[in-house]
Design a protein that fits this description.
single chain; mainly alpha; Formate dehydrogenase/DMSO reductase fold; 10 helices; 67% helix; globular
């Protein structure tokens, strides 16, 4: 699939934003975060800012962005519409959480409930985003059991890394929260490695034979392509990336998105002051870069079944 920058930007930003919002909602309600108004203001501003910018960027990939609001009317059958509904609904409890945290410096009682609901809706929004891709049976690299857990865990991981930066900026360091950051980085790395391994060793069920309905005819090849020049389908559904480039980018994503952030997050547990702050900031910057590369590969390596009609032997 053609990796549109607007969609990459959307999934990266909104994933980190929803992950941070969920972390603040759960940790605030549990009392692990101090009910300091400036910490609450900064955290919710960053979380909702990333979510809002990401959602706005997602409309740039639409042919008629001004009609994007109509998509939510199809929530009964469309995961895209459900994502939109969940995204809008998330702002309500998040706003209530902000009132309690920033105005009253209180994250208990009603405000704690708002925090938990914010976290649940944030996770549901990310799941809906993942289901947009997982539901596409024509793309083997997306239509599998790894897509949804991968999206959700990487969102939590991104949010945890951001939460770590906020805690150090406001001198509210908690070893348990820093440990949670390390844990999510390790789990995210492991799950993404399994996902990439699955895509590398498996192929989609359709073949050229099955596409034209002659499974028992032996090897079949396309003699004449449907078009004599490139068209929309070939551009959007037939994007090709050389295997050597994909392997190189995957290695870079392993290092910048997971290995180094994990190392710097571990380092932050054993140093203090500006050294710890620098470590978590570097971890966040590298993690963001690695997730952008990971998300580019997620789209670039996806092969649509329609490619069987343009010379591909399998997808």
């Amino acid at each position: 699939m053609h990796p549109a920058f607007s969609v990459i930007f959307f999934t990266t930003c909104s994933g980190a934003g929803y992950g941070l919002l969920a972390m603040m909602g759960i940790l605030g309600a549990s009392g692990m975060l101090p009910a300091d108004r400036w910490l609450g203001l900064a955290g919710l501003f960053v979380a909702l800012g990333l979510v809002s910018v990401g959602l706005l960027a997602s409309t740039f990939h639409l042919g008629r962005p001004e009609r994007a609001w109509r998509a939510v009317s199809q929530w009964r059958s469309s995961w895209l519409a459900r994502e939109g509904v969940m995204a809008v609904m998330t702002y309500i409890p998040a706003g209530l959480l902000g009132i309690g945290w920033v105005w009253y410096e209180d994250t208990t009682g009603l405000w704690a409930v708002a925090g938990v609901v914010s976290a649940v809706l944030a996770w549901l929004t990310v799941i809906c985003t993942a289901m947009i891709y997982k539901s596409l049976r024509t793309i083997h690299q997306w239509h599998n059991d790894w897509t949804v857990p991968s999206y959700l865990l990487l969102s939590v991981m991104s949010g945890a890394v951001l939460m770590s930066v906020l805690m150090h900026l406001f001198s509210a360091v908690d070893p348990y929260i820093q440990g949670l950051t390390v844990l999510t980085l390790a789990l995210g790395w492991g799950l993404k490695t399994l996902y990439w391994g699955f895509n590398k060793r498996t192929k989609g069920l359709p073949t050229v034979n099955s596409a034209i309905g002659i499974d028992e005819a032996g090897d079949v090849s396309v003699l004449e392509l449907p078009h004599t020049s490139a068209n929309y389908l070939m551009k959007e559904m037939g994007f090709r990336v050389a295997q050597k480039h994909a392997d190189k980018l995957r290695t870079i994503s392993h290092v910048t998105g997971f290995a180094l952030p994990l190392l710097f997050s571990l380092l932050a547990m054993f140093v203090t002051g500006y050294a710890a702050l620098a470590a978590v900031i570097v971890a966040w910057g590298l993690c963001s870069l690695g997730i952008i590369i990971e998300r580019w590969l997620f789209f670039a390596e996806a092969k649509h079944t329609v490619n069987l009609y343009y010379g591909a032997t399998s997808v």
